[in-house]
Specification:
alpha/beta, 6-stranded mixed beta sheet, 44% helix
Length: 485
């Protein structure tokens, strides 16, 4: 019975995320778990919550098996600890009165998500709030609280439903308080979306070439890869664009070793009178960088951004200097992380933008730092082909949407195999590369969009995770006062 309840709770949670994406299920997904945690000893609560966490993460990040089976298992096992710790916290704060308990437990969930984010290796995804990415009125609060404010609301409603079920009565005061909070958040979202902002617009095109991994690093296929990107780029010729974006490492290999191919891209930019942003590897001495290059409409290279947040086990091997023996099993050279938040400018009179490579667009601190550095909109270039036709690209996009809301910045995404899309400052996905059947991944094509460009800074951009720090404070006060209940 306990296992089936854990399976049911995990199943509801899984179904609230892509690709099933039944968003309302997130509001009740944890209620079954709370029912089997109620009144349990801490060690038993830990085990039950851990099982739910493991079932959820195993199903949600299972696509990592295409990189490493052991890594996928270990990562799921590791991430499950954070839900397991919440199980312990759940029983620890049971002595508190109802209303303080609701808020302390919601704060505890937020605190654990916040701690998990920098320890998740590379993907700040699968937060409870991310499940609501298409609930536009609700997620506008993220410009004050980040995604954690949305997670707080979702867990708060789960807890209230559980407490109502346990009491077998309508908890009037608690329901009124939660309803008022919820109404304020929705009203704020409605008001924010309804604001008539006279933003400048920027016209950007994206290329999605759908290059198979098996040929990406084949030396003989490089000319074919560039030719395909150029042919797709030509489809955007008459759109009067300010910028065209190619995916991550769209010029495969080291850029300095392919001067002829680089000249072809430069000639294309001149022919279209449009700057082109490409991805490639840079070598400087013994250092390698995952880079983005902006080629101007005159064919000149206008600047370069080197990826700051590298993917462990993919772009570098953690602890390599300490564990010398590991070099026998991972003989590849590590990439070097970039150090500068490079801001590109297409033209002095046009908007400025920051580039986020691969999973960098899921990282709140990077998005915020680029906004503070002067980016008026974001560009993400990525290659999610590693994870095949799974939910990975949709989880990636889901997390990236919150960066738009948090900082009120538009986002342009160019992904080798999808999802290539345009997201406005309020998190609306305006358009994407799709085929005639509506499929967005593992197809080739182009798309373009006119997006708002904004230089104003939100509360979250200026002050960061103040809401989360208040959640930590709430927990500390509750710990200090718990002995009095």
């Amino acid at each position: 019975m306990v296992f089936l309840t854990c399976l049911f709770s995990a199943g509801l949670l899984i179904a609230s995320f892509p690709q099933i994406q039944w968003t309302p299920l997130a509001w009740v997904a944890l209620v079954p778990l709370f029912c089997i945690l109620d009144g349990q000893k801490p060690w038993r609560a830990f085990r039950r919550a851990y099982l739910v966490g493991f079932l959820f993460f195993a199903a949600t990040i299972g696509w990592i098996v295409y990189i490493t089976y052991a890594g996928a298992f270990l990562l799921a096992a590791y991430l499950s600890l954070f839900i397991a710790f919440f199980g312990v916290v759940f029983v620890y704060f049971q002595p508190l009165p109802l209303i303080p308990r609701l808020f302390v437990l919601s704060s505890s969930w937020v605190a654990l998500e916040f701690i998990r984010a920098p320890l998740s290796l590379f993907l700040d995804g699968m937060m409870l709030g991310h499940s609501q990415y298409n609930n536009l009125w609700l997620i506008q609060i993220a410009d004050k609280t980040g995604v954690y404010g949305v997670s707080f609301l979702v867990i708060l409603v789960n807890l209230l439903i559980f407490e109502t079920w346990r009491a077998r009565s309508f908890l009037i005061k608690a329901n009124i308080i939660v309803t008022v909070i919820f109404s304020i958040v929705l009203a704020y979202g409605c008001w924010t979306i309804g604001q008539n902002k006279n933003y400048k617009t920027v016209r950007v095109g994206v290329v999605q070439p759908d290059i198979p991994l098996v040929v990406s690093w084949d030396e003989d296929k490089k000319p074919w890869i560039i030719d395909k990107n150029i042919q797709l780029t030509q489809q955007l010729r008459n759109q009067n664009l300010d910028l065209i974006v190619w995916p991550e490492t769209s010029l495969p290999g080291i850029i300095s070793e392919a001067p002829f191919l680089t000249k072809e891209i430069q000639a294309t930019a001149v022919s279209l009178h449009t700057p082109i942003l490409i991805g490639s590897v840079t070598q400087e001495g013994e250092h390698y960088y995952n880079s983005a290059y902006l080629i101007g409409s005159d064919g000149q290279i206008l600047g370069r951004y080197d990826k700051i947040h590298l993917v462990p086990f993919g772009e570098y091997m953690p602890l390599r200097p300490v564990l010398g023996w590991i070099n026998k099993f991972f003989p590849f050279d590590d990439f070097t992380r970039g150090k500068t938040y490079k801001i590109f400018s297409i033209d002095p009179s046009k908007s400025k933008f920051g580039v986020l490579i691969c999973f960098e667009d899921t990282l709140a601190y990077l998005r915020r730092n680029f906004s503070q550095a002067g980016a008026d909109f974001f560009v993400n270039m990525t290659n999610d082909a590693w994870f095949r036709d799974t939910k990975a690209p949709f989880l990636h996009l889901q997390a990236a949407v919150f960066g738009c809301v948090e900082n009120h910045r538009s986002l342009v995404r160019a992904a080798n195999t999808g999802v290539s899309a345009f997201v406005d400052p309020w998190g609306r996905i305006i358009s994407a590369v799709r085929d005639g059947h509506g499929k967005e991944t593992f197809i080739d094509g182009t798309a373009w969009g006119a997006l708002p460009s904004n230089h104003e800074k939100t509360f979250y951009t200026k002050y960061g995770d103040i809401f989360t720090y208040l959640c930590f404070l709430c927990i500390l006060v509750a710990v200090a006062l718990r002995k009095y209940f």
